[in-house]
UniProtKB/TrEMBL annotation:
Pfam families xrefs: FAD_binding_3, Rng_hyd_C
Region (Disordered): 378-411
Protein name (record): FAD-dependent monooxygenase
Highest taxon of the lineage: Bacteria
Keywords from the named record: FAD, Flavoprotein, Monooxygenase, Oxidoreductase
Keyword Oxidoreductase attributed: yes
Annotated PANTHER family: BINDING MONOOXYGENASE, PUTATIVE (JCVI)-RELATED, TRK SYSTEM POTASSIUM UPTAKE PROTEIN
Taxonomic source organism: Streptomyces smyrnaeus
Domain FAD-binding: residue ranges: 16-352
Matches recorded under InterPro entries: FAD-bd, FAD/NAD-bd_sf, RIFMO-like
Amino acid sequence: MTSLNAVKGTAEAPNTEVLVVGAGPTGLTLACDLRRRGIDVRVVERADRLAPGSRGKGIQPRTMEVLDDLGLAPAVRAAGGPYPRMLVRRPGRPVAEHDMVERAEPRAGSPYAEVWMLPQWRTQELLYARLRELGGEVAFGTAVTELAQDATAVTARLSTGGTVRAAYAVACDGGRSTVRAALGIGMTGTTVDPEPSVVADVRLSGLDRGHWHVWQDDTRGALALCPMAGTDTFQLFARHAALEEGSPPEEILRRLLATRTDLSPDQLKEVAHASQFRVNAALAERFRAGRVLLAGDAAHIHSPAGGQGLNTSVQDAYNLGWKLGLVLRGQAAEALLDTYEEERAPLAAQVLGLSTRLHGRAARRGRETQQLDLAYPDSSLSRHPAAPHPSPLSPGDRAPDAPLTAPGDSAPGGARRVFDLLRGPHFTLLAVGDAAPPVGLPAYLRTHAVAATAPYAPDGLYLVRPDGYLALITEDPGEVTAYVTGLASAT
């Protein structure tokens, strides 16, 4: 792939609005979000099918809220399950049983209380099915071999011989992103563990599927077998292990079972997928170069500890989708796209630090990994009026769920909860109590008059972005008008 260079002069008009490079969780989430906004999307994927393997198996509560908004929460809940308790075996010690995840019941503001297990391959299947329902498709076996951009569009040459010209392109092509390399964007980071690890999806006989089995040995290295919810497989994870070239994966994994566990190698019946990797933590030096943006692993690489990688990547897409949508429909200035890096790069750096701290530790995963507390208080899109509103919420906070009315009362459009009003590709203005909303607001913003209910109290105007974060809390309708007017001019 050649370096991406600006092409001067007038070029032909784009034949699609957004080119998404890569059909992993990031690219599929972005494509779904754009399609529901009516944006024309072309998704290309180098591989000939969706990536196999269960590697990213934890859907954090905040990501469940994203999938809920995309219409996928029921399917995700049906396909997965809660994390099982761990049985940890150490040489010379009795077997210990404990929870890796902090158990919690749904709360008023958080309908999804704890991480949900779903193999990554299944998450991708559900996202792909949703994309097709929305009229999108993926061109498999299609790589981007060359990129160029000018003032109006990006031109991509494809391995199949054709070209795509798009108003914008988004690199969702993983940690070894060829698009990022073509842009000349470096990665700054560190090696978390210099020794390789192996992850595999296997079928075993005679092993209890009600527990996550761990053999912890500081000399030989840890090995874990976790039953994958909704499947008949286990995810095998072995630290400080490698797949040897020329040796069948079955042979290597049977050897690992023999040397690191009390299982018989013959209990391994099938290896559905196996791969090895080294744990690195790295952040792209920038997330945007002209009309090309980076998302997911193309922008940041994580340790798998704490289940942050897939989740952070999905939320990159969720942050970027509404911004591209408004810009492409002429409802916001192109400068809005600069807020993508402004908001996501600091959070990605924060999550990288968390994943690195958790690597190799058996600490219970709780609130800090659920991503419900991630916020954008310092973003230029979070407007703090000179006279702060007395709400316990602040601009930049995630907008929590809440019941709208007492049982038996009516609610806007039959909605029962705040999330019912937020669901969809629009901004939402909650006119709480006696607060009077402004008139003449754009069509992408929906207004609902609701009774005050904690934490949406006291009375006021609560403006919620399409990605579920509070943009503004005020009693002055003029400030709401000024906010949306500002999107159309500059951010």
